[in-house]
Write a structure and sequence with these properties.
This protein is about 10% helix and about 55% strand. The protein is built from four helices and 20 strands. It has helices at about 1-15, 35, 50-55, 300-310; strands at about 65-80, 90-95, 95-105, 110-115, 120-125, 140-155, 160-180, 190-215, 215-225, 225-240, 245-260, 260-270, 275-285, 290-295, 320, 325-335, 340-350, 370-380, 390-410, 415-435.
């Protein structure tokens, strides 16, 4: 039975991690169906292996082996209405996302786990012909995290945990730009399609603590370090001049981006066995994401001069993102019927990460309110050979989130515009729990 259990866990892990699934926000949306239904307030829970992400220390209080697979479908719609020509444009994205978590409690004092998930990812995609195409047509950041963790129960009421983040990331930026030449008139300026693709790898760290103050009150916290990634890749220009055949330039490029540090603290209070309340506060160091910048090879200017007989003015292939540190408030409530059916609801408020009114089409982040609803089932699993042989437990979770952002007007000199956004996410979680193998 032990061998079959290990094989099943490995198969589920491989299936869930087989695609490079994507999220749609630099700040992570929830990575667990159960946590999402509770508005993300999950730092003090111990009944789900997604604690690998939310608070590694909680694994020291878990039991046996837990496997959790989560699948989500987020749909995010952003509209931008420029001040000069009030014609709305839309970035409308929906992509499948997911996560996998496995944890194992050893002798009820030590918990270990591993997770594969995709936070800190975002994408905006506007029409090629929209009014802001000289700033961005597509901007995209994907990150894959593999996180092994270990947790230790220091005492009956206290546990600590720590983990390592092995990160793989890809970035893409496409936009149109105008090249200006000092020796040529404005009528001879050149239009070019500019696109950068680059990838990077990095290492980060995470730590957590969980305190059981009493039978119905817990406090938990997580700290996640910032990670600076050095990207290398290629950059292409497709330059068009009148009816001439397009001139293409492909060169190496590099950039540096910082994935922000995070600090979360939260509590869970239970009234009897049926009703629990959870409240978390999260601080995210978004100011560490300073620029969206792609360096150009100096040979670029030589190639332009060789082809057109004159050099373009020096250009900057990037923008300042004007980010600031932000906070999230997450609240969740759960009511259980007969210990097997749970009804959940939550609320999240997150502030815009853009300082002042400098919202840019690359990352048009707005204040967002998110309402969450969900239902869950927890029950036993039995042997197919002996219906009285209890093997462990199974959990099923489903949730729906709706997020909305009030209209916000950007005074960005390059592109003043009014932005508005809405988002909805549906998701499912499947969990399997096995008894201790020791």
């Amino acid at each position: 039975m032990r061998r079959k259990t290990v094989v099943l866990i490995l198969l589920l892990f491989i299936i869930s991690a087989s695609r490079f699934l994507e999220a749609s926000d630099i700040r992570p949306f929830e990575l667990s169906a159960r946590a999402a239904a509770l508005g993300g307030a999950f730092a003090s829970r111990t009944d789900d292996s997604s604690s690998v992400f939310y608070n590694p220390a909680a694994l020291a209080f878990s039991l046996g082996i837990m496997v959790k697979l989560n699948l989500f479908y987020p749909k995010i719609t952003m509209t931008a209405e420029p001040s000069a020509i009030p014609i709305s444009s839309k970035s409308d994205l929906g992509k499948l996302s997911g996560s996998t978590f496995i944890s194992w409690n050893i002798k009820e004092r030590i918990g270990v786990g591993i997770g594969v998930f995709f936070p800190h990812s975002m994408e905006t995609k506007w029409l090629e012909s929209w009014a802001g195409n000289t700033l961005s047509i597509r901007s995209k950041l994907n990150t894959l995290y593999v996180r092994p963790v270990v947790a230790v129960k220091v005492s009956k009421h206290l546990s600590v945990g720590a983990g390592l983040d092995i990160i793989s990331s890809k970035v893409n930026w496409k936009y149109n730009r105008i090249f200006t030449f000092q020796e040529m008139g404005s009528g001879d300026d050149l239009q070019a399609s500019s696109e950068s693709d680059a990838s990077a790898k990095g290492i980060g760290y995470v730590a957590g603590v969980l305190i059981k103050i009493s039978g119905n009150l817990r406090l938990g916290g997580r700290y996640q370090t910032k990670v600076t990634l050095d990207f290398d890749g290629t950059h292409s220009f497709i330059i068009r001049r009148g009816s001439e055949y397009p001139f293409g330039i492909l060169q190496e490029t590099n950039t540096t981006l910082t994935l922000p540090r995070e600090f979360v603290i939260g509590g869970m209070y239970s009234i009897g066995k049926s009703l629990t309340f959870q409240l978390d506060f999260q601080q995210i160091g978004m100011s560490e994401i300073k620029q969206w910048e792609f360096d150009l090879d100096t040979d670029f200017y030589d190639m332009i001069e060789d082809h057109y007989g004159t050099r373009p003015d020096n250009i900057r292939q990037g923008v300042d993102l004007n980010m600031r540190d932000v906070s999230r408030i997450m609240f969740g409530v759960e009511y259980r019927f007969k210990n097997s059916i749970a009804i959940r609801a939550g609320y999240t408020h997150q502030k815009s990460a853009v300082a002042g009114q400098m919202i840019h089409p690359i990352f048009p982040d707005l204040d967002t309110n998110i309402l969450s609803f969900g239902i869950g089932y927890d029950g036993p699993t039995f042997s197919v050979w002996d219906t009285f042989e209890k093997l462990g437990g199974i959990s099923l979770d489903a949730f729906f989130q709706y997020g909305f952002s009030p209209k916000s007007t950007s005074t960005l000199p390059e592109f003043p515009a009014a932005y508005q956004a809405s988002r909805w996410i549906v998701g499912l979680g499947l969990g399997i729990t096995f008894g201790s193998l020791t």
